[in-house]
Design goal:
Layout: H1 3-8, E1 29-34, H2 39-52, E2 57-60, H3 66-75, E3 81-84, E4 95-108, H4 118-126, E5 139-141, H5 148-154, H6 158-168, H7 179-188, E6 192-197, H8 198-204, E7 209-210, H9 220-225, E8 231-238, H10 244-253, H11 256-262, E9 268-269
Parallel strand pairs: 1-2, 1-3, 5-6
Antiparallel strand pairs: 3-8, 4-6, 4-7, 4-8, 4-9
Helix pairs in contact: 4-6, 5-6
Length: about 270
């Protein structure tokens, strides 16, 4: 079990039953966790909130629990707020609000890369394209089959979906545990190619290139205009009965000021 999970007194790998969310009493400690993509911005916002509300402490749980793990932790009363990269399943409980969105990107450490077509993306994941144009080996970095990012990557096209499924059958490709670890590996591996998000890249100042897909640049402006159609949406999940302290924290996360502060980092309010 991870150190952070030990502090919480909860094992994120345990198959805890998901039932009615517990009422969270007003407390000076607000615990939030979920997908790794938003960990950097949660830390930024937590620091601002603590400065504006002396006496409150916001704990951003690390390592990231992921969507499913954070929803289970919320139901067990070990988090006040969960942040997911997907909507809840019928078996999961909690009040869900879309929060922010950012472009889904294909990222690489190969800074000479100029972009990929959807056919090239499919060929890369299927193992038919194994080098970049100058002969530099192309090395895939995967996410697990049930990660929300993998599902969104597969939604690029039926051919990409089939290719990603084929890549996931291979045993020679790395599959990092979370979004942060995946982006770190994409930075470190020469000639890498893997999925990430523009928001995570900008908020961590990652030294990677977000590739145009079909000639479409993955910028926030293009996402908002519809010129770039691929994105990740993150959701805030709260208990069925939340305390006043939790409601205030959520109001802050959804506030115009908080959302404006995230725009330079590649995030826009979720539609």
């Amino acid at each position: 079990m991870s150190a952070s999970a030990s502090v919480l007194g909860w094992n994120p790998t345990a198959a805890a039953p998901v039932g009615k969310a517990l009422t969270v009493p007003d407390t000076a400690l607000l615990r939030i966790g979920g997908v790794g993509s938003v960990t950097p911005i949660l830390k930024r916002l937590a620091a601002v909130y603590e400065q504006q509300h002396p006496g409150f402490r916001v704990q951003v749980v690390e390592p990231p629990l992921g969507s499913s793990g954070s929803v289970r932790a919320l139901a067990a009363g070990k988090l006040e707020v969960a942040v997911t990269g997907r909507v809840l399943t019928p078996q999961e409980r909690g009040n869900v609000t879309p929060w922010v969105r950012t472009p889904l990107v294909l990222a690489t450490s190969y800074l000479k890369a100029t972009g990929l077509s959807l056919k090239q993306v499919a060929d890369a994941y299927a193992g038919r394209m194994t080098t970049w144009p100058d002969g530099q080996p192309l090395r895939l970095v995967l996410r697990s089959a049930f990660e929300s990012e993998t599902l969104q990557l597969k939604a690029l096209s039926p051919e990409v979906a089939q290719a990603v499924d084929a890549a996931l059958q291979r045993r020679d490709l790395p599959v990092p545990d979370n979004d942060l670890a995946a982006l770190e590996l994409i930075q470190r591996v020469q000639g890498s190619l893997g999925s990430s998000s523009l928001g995570l890249m900008l908020s961590t100042q990652a030294k990677v290139r977000a590739l145009p897909i079909e000639g479409r640049e993955p910028t926030l402006a293009h996402l908002l205009s519809g010129a770039y159609p691929w994105s990740r949406t993150y959701h805030l999940v709260q208990p069925a009965q939340a305390s006043h302290a939790v409601v205030r924290w959520l109001d802050f996360l959804r506030s115009d000021a908080a959302l404006r502060s995230l725009q330079p980092l590649g995030y826009a309010v979720a539609a």
